Amino acid sequence: MTHSGEPQVTSAFGPGALGVGIGDMPDHWDLVADIVVIGAGATGLPAAIAARDAGASVIVVEANYDIGGHAILSGGNVPLGGGTSAQRKYGIADSPALVFADLTDWTIVQPNGWPDYRYNDRAVMRAFADHAAEAYEFLVANGVRFKDVPPDTVARYNTFVDTDVDTDFGKPRPQYKLQTPPFYATWSTPLVHDTRAGLRINAQCQVVDMDGQVILGLYCGGESAGGFNQHGLGRCTAQGYMAGKYAALERP
């Protein structure tokens, strides 16, 4: 849609929504808004809030009977860095430049032998890196509570080995202490994985056509956007925040 007085559309889909009966569906719609967000998931909700904060009127459309999308089934891990307040609290040095370097590092090889990050769109990566910390603070300001975990988890885990009881996660009889650094951790939990393709977007989360031309009024982020080979709530929430903010700026 164009921005000549018509509503903008922020395409922030929540894939995997369950179908519901059509008996309660209205026969006629006469709602009007500056921005219509499709999908009330981890991308759509930040998009709607960011657009509202920028002064736009917003309608969120969701196919499911509740909200949340894939975020409901996620592991709850939100990888947003670049210099957040949480990182500063514990003296963790980070920056947008470091985030960008990590996400475009060809030396990170997956178990299948492929350096998947080499397929990332550099402009999209740069935009995410520049907005990651800002998106984190946006989530905190809107009521998201992140668990405050001081960086003493190794010492705490070693006490579980001494007592044979893991009071944090209920792991059966931990037997081996972590004693000699460096230590490496990996996230391991059943969760919904990411998509491998999606709409092509630019650094402002605007959808572009096959010729690379911007489709006015159409934005996309999260699992429905391509060019970003990294799953997780960090990408979804940051791109939702970006899409909502930039869509609101496009209003006439």
From TrEMBL:
GO molecular function: oxidoreductase activity
This protein's UniProt keywords: FAD, Flavoprotein, Oxidoreductase
Domain of life, per lineage: Bacteria
Pfam families in the record: FAD_binding_2 (PF00890)
Cofactor(s) listed in the protein's UniProt record: FAD
Gene3D superfamilies: FAD/NAD(P)-binding domain (3.50.50.60), Succinate dehydrogenase/fumarate reductase flavoprotein, catalytic domain (3.90.700.10)
Signal sequence coordinates: none
Domain FAD-dependent oxidoreductase 2 FAD-binding: from-to ranges: 34-148, 153-229
InterPro entries (alphabetical): FAD-dep_OxRdtase_2_FAD-bd (IPR003953), FAD-oxidoreductase_2 (IPR050315), FAD/NAD-bd_sf (IPR036188), Succ_DH/fumarate_Rdtase_cat_sf (IPR027477)
Name of the featured protein: FAD-binding protein
Organism: Tectimicrobiota bacterium
